[in-house]
Input
Amino acid sequence: MSKLYVTTPIYYVNDLPHIGHIYTTVVADTLARYHRLTGGDTYFLTGTDEHGQNIQRAAEEQGIEPIQLADRVVSRYHELWDEYAMSHDDFIRTSEPRHRAGVEEIIRRIDANDDFYTDRHQGWYCSACETFYTEKEIGDAKLCPVHERPTEWKSEENLFFRLSRYQQALLDLYAEHPEMVRPESRLNEVRAFVESGLRDLSVSRANLPWGIPFPGHPGQTVYVWLDALTNYVSALGFGRGEAPLYERFWDTADATRVHVIGKDILRFHAVYWPAFLLSAGLPLPTTVWAHGWWLRDAKKVSKSSGNVVRPDYLVRRFGPDALRYFMLREMVFGQDAQFSDEAFIDRYNADLANDLGNTVSRVVTLSRRAFDGMTPPESCDDNPLIAVAREVAAEYRREMEAYAFNRALAALWRLLAETNQYLVEREPWKRMKEDGGARAVARVLWNCLEATRIVTVGLLPFMPRTAPRVLAALGVPKPPASLDAMAWGGLPTGALLPDPEPLFPRIDKDAWVEETPAAAGAAPSPQDDNERIEIVSDETRATAPSAEPKPAAEPTPAAAEATTEAMIDIEQFFRTRLKVGTVKLAERVPKSNKLVRLEVDLGEGAPRQLVAGIAKAYEPESLVGRQVVVVANLQPAKLMGVESRGMVLAASEDGQPVLLHPDRQVPPGTEVR
Ligand code: MSP
Output
């Protein structure tokens, strides 16, 4: 039985998920679902990357501990992956002890191979990438080539990994196993990078409390990329003694191991990761598959570009499967693609509403009418659609194996087009009254229903919730567990056809674009760099005026339900106790350039100690005597060792906090409601 281990990158927890994260996970999920349907043994892993300076800073800015930030974002990921019906077998968090065990073990093995040494490390560092860059890469302006933000000069004692030792081994590997990096253009890129010379890699950081301590080197923390990459084996039990999953999917020659990633993190996966594994004497991934980027306004969608797309508004209205379909149909896997509501709506209307939805509704309605609410009483094994269906099923499989999702879908749509053509040519509606007409009509309609069923089986990995509904509409109430069901002949005769329900109601594009600010190019949701994950929760996004589309038609019950779900009632709101306080004391937190320690009178007798990430925007002295708005019932958290018993509210403008205060002085402790 063929074995597939498929992984997504583990996502950073300093940001809420957006279209890019959703896309990679949909790709991996589609592959996993496809492989399961071929009867293969499958394991699908995703998770979160929680350590490092970036996360620590983000948490600090929000006045919480890194693990609290991680917990919040992880719960959002769980909700979202549920919503998209992701079928992952495991979700790894790098803050888990099981992961740490794996990291310690890989370090032990690399060390046993004498591939670590200590040295002074200096260079230009981008903390967003957690990476040093060469002078050439950052140019005169010293800007990070990925984030286009200033890099900083860093100099410290670190542990180094002898990456240079692996230059030739890696080049040999790419030559012997060109499938190691896909698509080919990326392989060429990686090869050129390695050929240009590999320098040893710093794999620890000094004075970074939020991370895994480097074994045997007090004061050093494992570099986040060595930490993060190891998730692919730690999740399988590597480093914890008996590890049946590790043996089944990694430590074996008969499994295909695929890392699906975005091209932004290719070097880490196609150079560093194999080098670590070679040094540790561990098997390598079969393929690192680097897809392109979703762009908006010709720029990569990302938090740092400030053009984040969170397609919640589309999903609320059209369901996650429509978006899953769009992403995989629209993007040529490996290349970049533009995200726009117009493109989404065009595809939705043309492919789903028109080609699929109308075909299903037409053939089901005709059959119900002709055969008393049932599929036709007779099947047919001799007609021109059979040959097309066979070709399409084979092409579909070939394209899926090559990860050419858009082409696999195009193949299915060819069968749909042929089916429609066939239906129009045979005109079954005219033949009912002819002599022997019922038989001919039965055969024509059965053929059309059957071809549509085959298309829909092929859609199961792409549209895991909708494809079963379409199958049910075609008289197949239980979706098949195998792609063998794409063979001609599977549709039951004389089976009940339920009342047709509208599957993909058409969208009026102009009305949508006009009425949805997000579609017209405005931000679909607050997307400030420093958005406070606890305040701008997804619920807030879902109900923010700019994010709320006016439905073009009556909302479906499901859509209405989703909108209600996203609202909070007044009771829930009042659970957050907001109070006005007067600042009595304000001073910088030692060694922090962001944090201010405040003592705030909330009318409780003794003032409360609060810590706020506002030192870059406010001189602490200027705050004394001011009134501020405080979340008074927030669980206490420690920031740089200082306890904060609440949170000061600020608007966030271009990442700069702007404190809120009442219109006139009020007694300390006055409730805000
Ligand atoms: N934590 C690292 C990965 C460690 S893996 C051992 C990381 N995390 S991330 O949160 O920044 O996620 C990056 C991944 O998200 C990309 O590799 C890609 O899979 C996906 N995308 C993020 N933005 C994207 C687009 N605009 N378009 C498509 N996918 C992109 O890097």
Remarks:
- Residues 3-310 form a domain with the Rossmann fold fold (CATH 3.40.50.620).
- Residues 520-566 have pLDDT under 50 and may be disordered.
- DSSP finds 23 helices and 25 strands in the chain.
- The chain has three domains: 3-310, 358-486, 575-672.
